[in-house]
Amino acid sequence: MTIAASHDHARLEPGTLRHFDHLGQSVIESLFCRPPEPIDRSSWPAQRLAIGLGATLYVPATRPDLAGVIRRRRSEGVVSMVIDLEDAVADHEEADAIGHAVSALQEISDHPGDPVLLFVRPRSVDRIPSIVEALRDRANGAPSALTGFVIPKFGSANAGAAIDAVRQASSALGQHLWLMPVLESASVVHRETRDEELATIAAHLAAFRSNVLAVRIGATDICGYFGIRRDRDLTIYDVRVAADVIAGIVNHLGRSDESGFIVTGPVWEYFADHERLFQPLLRHTPFRESDAVYFRQQLVSRDMDGLLREITLDRANGLHGKTVIHPAHVAAVHALSAVTHEEYHDALDILAADSGGVRASSYRNKMNELKPHRNWALRVMDRAAAFGVTRQGVTFVDLLTALARQGAVSR
User: Fold this and answer.
1) Is this structure's pTM higher than 0.70?
2) Which domain holds residue 301?
């Protein structure tokens, strides 16, 4: 299936936040049997909102035209962004970067434009009060564009201070702010301390559940403890020590009961081509069927096949969404987040009965076990709300090629 390009505006009310809203309405209608719903920050439960983050783009706060960068990325389909004051900022640049972050948030508050979920990642918890105070000084009583804080190296040692700081920031700004902890400290990574540390973190987050949006994983720091930097031919799941940490985090914090949280996928670090050691990971057939063979070659030349593979493995391991550091990666995450027609109808079948049992899929290619698959089906419905349900026969290739026509994949 080949999608014709369109530049129609999606017919949305001003101030509406929705995935794929940068595509034309006719393209959305041709791709989706159930289009993505507007993201409702006030009524969506945290689990659905966390899944709706999709690809969360990190933007260094050192960019002088930070507000302009944020608006430009939003126009390209980015829904959630983190203004980074930590790893992306040199020590001597931190003060200027904080000033840029505050100015950008204030400019966006004064001139909202298209809405976006904006978070700040401070270097440490003790920077939060000064950031909030600077926002208050400039706010003139208007609500801030800030959605919440991403806390690096979150653990038992700083959990209490981080929670208190975000709670006090919410009170000072008069709005609900979300906390997203990043798990990447040595006590989480090292096997002898991991379970106790994660159990303590889980207890802290459970006590503050109403303000915890999602748990993020700092894969780069995790690998750094072992002197490892994964090659672009490999996914994070090929690095066994990192995969073990991810499994532990999901086991403690990603459970599908009332104790769990949404855990997001780790960053994919690469975006340039190189001499390859292994065969590409993308099959030819889906691209031939969509008349997109050359597009496949473009993806492979930019190492996007590895990213697509890792996104698929993220979901297989219980993760949703992904941290991204390059805007070209956003489309891949979102294209693979959309619910397929088959997934959606399997989920509907599973949720239609509470009595259990086994039932053949309406696609006649699998068996749906109604009780064991129920939590999976509920997650599918959250994804369907955030990213829509594709029409029968529409594949991720169709979504990616439609997004590429907007310049959001191959850049």
Assistant:
1) yes
2) 52-337
